[in-house]
Design brief:
224 residues, alpha+beta, CRO Repressor, 4-stranded antiparallel sheet, 7 helices
Length: 224
């Protein structure tokens, strides 16, 4: 039992490190080749766990080889566009100038329900608002609305739009995040002063963020 647990931990660490090297992607964002490699890695890693007569290295070596091949293929596809199109395919326009391309949908074996679901996931519930819809190589649909269906920007309304920067988390679940002060965007003194104004302590805060304009957002912890 202990041997199985030990082998599982070793293989888990090896697979996690290999997947980390391959890069961060959600399952829904994987290209077909990446999905195949991911499935193969899980299958190969499980063999030494199921068969204790096999050494752990027999599972680690194929996994490493697959990762190296994936990295090599990724490098080649960056430099050779025809290879990239062969491996990953290319985006396909399914709505053009507001018109559904039914031939393309048949070619993609895509139903109208698939199209409507993709549009909803892209934040559009009315197909008549869509000027262009593109089926990406990872299976997701990107949408561009007609100009009269898009909300106006501050630039179009001639409104000032100062950059507030990306909010950083300064307190998470009652713990001060020291790395938030590394950029110099916010200081610990400013955080403590804001907490003092709100009559709160660090332990009482579930979440606290701040931006370049020293605008704070605070969520208090709920009492048990």
């Amino acid at each position: 039992m202990l041997v199985t647990i030990f082998r599982t931990v070793i293989l888990y660490i090896a697979v996690v490190l290999c997947m980390r090297i391959m890069g961060k992607r959600q399952v829904g964002e994987l290209q077909p080749a990446e999905l195949v490699v991911t499935i193969l890695i899980s299958e190969l890693a499980s063999i030494p766990v199921q068969d204790l007569s096999r050494p752990v290295i027999s599972g680690i070596v194929p996994v490493v080889v697959l990762v190296v091949l994936e990295i090599l293929m990724s490098s080649l596809t960056l430099k050779i566009p025809p290879l990239r199109r062969a491996v990953s395919g290319k985006p396909a326009i399914v709505i053009r100038n507001g018109q559904i391309d039914q031939k393309m949908m048949k070619k993609l074996r895509m139903t109208i329900d698939d199209l409507l679901e993709g549009l909803r996931q892209a934040g559009t519930f009315k197909i008549q608002q869509v000027a262009y819809a593109v089926m990406e190589t990872n299976g997701k649909i990107s949408v561009m609305l007609f100009d009269d269906q898009t909300p106006p920007t501050k630039q179009e309304l001639h409104m000032p739009a100062p950059c507030k920067g990306m909010p950083v988390t300064v307190i998470s679940d009652g713990r001060l995040q020291k790395q938030a002060f590394a950029s110099g965007q916010i200081t610990k003194e400013q955080v403590m002063a804001r907490l003092h104004t709100a009559h709160l302590t660090v332990d009482q805060v579930f979440l606290m963020t701040a931006n370049l304009k020293n605008e704070f957002f605070i969520v208090k912890k709920k009492e048990d």
